[in-house]
Amino acid sequence: MVESVIGAVYISDDFSAVGAEQFFNNVLRPFYDRHISLKTLSHHPTKVLFELLQAQGCQQFQIVKDQTKNMIEQYTQCDGMDLLHHETSYLRAFAVIVHDVILASAFDTTSALAAKRASFSALDALEGDPDFMARTCDCRSTTQAKKGQKKAIEQALAGFSDDEDLMAVESILAERDGMDSDDEAD
Predict the structure, then answer these.
(1) In the predicted model, what is the mean pLDDT of residues 134-143?
(2) In terms of Cα–Cα distance, which of 53, 73, 71, 72 is closest to 63?
(3) Are 79 and 156 part of one and the same domain?
(4) CB 107 within 8 A of CB 131
(5) Does one domain contain both 15 and 70?
């Protein structure tokens, strides 16, 4: 929309940049100076957290949302007597979980603020304990082992030319993978 407005001013001034520059300096620059800063342009902490975990090769992380009741007691004085008022509000709770370990959690009145706080806390926790991912996450080694296994199977299957032999071997491997999945579930 901003581009369209500046373009319209530029065209209406017979393709002269003078009017567009004046419009920018008088209308847009005060807005940008007031509301846009390096802090407002920084990346969202949840995005930074997810990118960091993905760069580590981790695939088992999540942000879990919950809602809790918050009871606030307020005392008010009326005609010399203390009156007790109960006010109920709901807080949004978010937890950052990595491999079933709660890395950080936060509460706030809105989901956006609670998620942001939980992500900031998780980033701080990871910065404070640089060995956490090495101790907790084995996703990268598991993925590499599966890739190596797949490559070995493909090489073994490459020697077969008969479709029936190939189908027999694939069915045996599928059965074996099914057994491995059952063993992991136990």
Answers:
(1) 83
(2) 53
(3) no
(4) no
(5) no
